[in-house]
Amino acid sequence: MSTIKDVAKAAGVSISTVSHVINGTRFVSEALHAQVHDAMALLDYQPNALARGLRRGGQTKTIGLVIPDNSNPFFAEIARSIEGHAFANGYGVLLCNSDDDEQKETTYINALIAKQVDGIIFIAAGAGYAQLKRLTKMNVPVVIVDRETSHAQIDTVILENEKGGYAATDYLIKLGHRRIACITGPSQLTPSANRVDGFRRALTAAGLTIHPEYIVAGDFKRRGGELALHKLLQLAEPPTAVFACNDMMAIGALKTAAQRQIAVPAELSIIGFDNIAFAEAVSPALTTVAQPVAKLAQISVDRILLRMSAAANANLAAQRIVLEPTVVLRDSCAPLKKGE
Ligand code: RIB
């Protein structure tokens, strides 16, 4: 049975540093954190539970939840749903907001490991996923939600984003629009990349040309949507319809249209993605592509519960669970104006 002394030796650090890493009692650099955790994994070291306070039945009955931006209602809503389902199953949730920052994400993962959470539900800040390898090596149960990676065989719960992008664009085409723009999210994130693929497929399927100037980079933030529509409205032939890859950017675009006295939907149609609660509260109410947030949350919690039950964890094959998007029709889209 390895001891804390063996771990310190293998990691090339002091015993007190190992103790601080395990107990989260003092800041330890990310590099030293990784050295200590790698040594613990190598030696299969199990910290003495009594040294860190009582743990009931080898569990702390807590789940870590890492999200990229808790100021975005999509993440706030899915976090609330995850917390509610986990709590109903006897688990508390430690919420970590990475601010779309992978360094901060690493710090939080270290803290969750130090706090000995029983499992982690993870929505990635970027495309790096470096932390997943460590967590897998340490046998920490993990479920990925919303943004996926091909780097690891890990339970994944996502939306069929390409189909959602196709449905949004096809809806605008059927309204008669031909000059259709797309405001993308961060291109390295799979949800945005796949939605843009759907946008392209719908235009191609309708025999329409894909104009590069009509695809403008956004950032999934409201301000990014505002600026992207300003850019689109500078074009010699501005779009008559816009597909924004999330509702926050669509709401930003609504603001820009209002600032420039462009009537939505009479002069410009705008469709979003997510169906956050605010989508029906803005004016005009936003037509959008809905994500089944409650279902995404429930499935991710059920999956992590299964993973955390030691009996199942051993050889449960990783699953990729894909849910369907649906278009929600409200007031921000209309047929192309005659003569446009
Ligand atoms: O609005 C935030 C976006 O980031 C959502 O569309 C969600 O899919 C996440 O990836």
Keywords:
340 residues; alpha/beta; Rossmann fold; six-stranded parallel beta sheet; six-stranded mixed beta sheet; 12 helices; elongated; binds alpha-D-ribofuranose
* Rounded mean pLDDT score: 91
CATH homology superfamily of the largest domain: Response regulator
Named at the architecture level, the CATH assignment of the largest domain is: 3-Layer(aba) Sandwich
- Category by helix and strand content: alpha/beta
3D architecture notes:
With about 350 residues, the chain is of the alpha/beta class. It folds into three domains: about 45 residues, no CATH class; about 130 residues, Rossmann fold (3-Layer(aba) Sandwich); about 130 residues, Rossmann fold (3-Layer(aba) Sandwich). About 40% of the residues lie in helices and about 15% in strands. It has twelve helices and twelve strands. The strands form two sheets. It has a six-stranded parallel β-sheet with strand order 2-1-3-4-5-11, sandwiched between helices. The chain has a six-stranded mixed β-sheet with strand order 7-6-8-9-10-12, sandwiched between helices. Strand 1, helix 4 and strand 2 form a beta-alpha-beta unit. Helix 4 crosses helix 11. The protein is elongated and about 80 Å long. About 0% of the residues have low confidence. Bound molecules: alpha-D-ribofuranose. Alpha-D-ribofuranose binds next to strand 9.
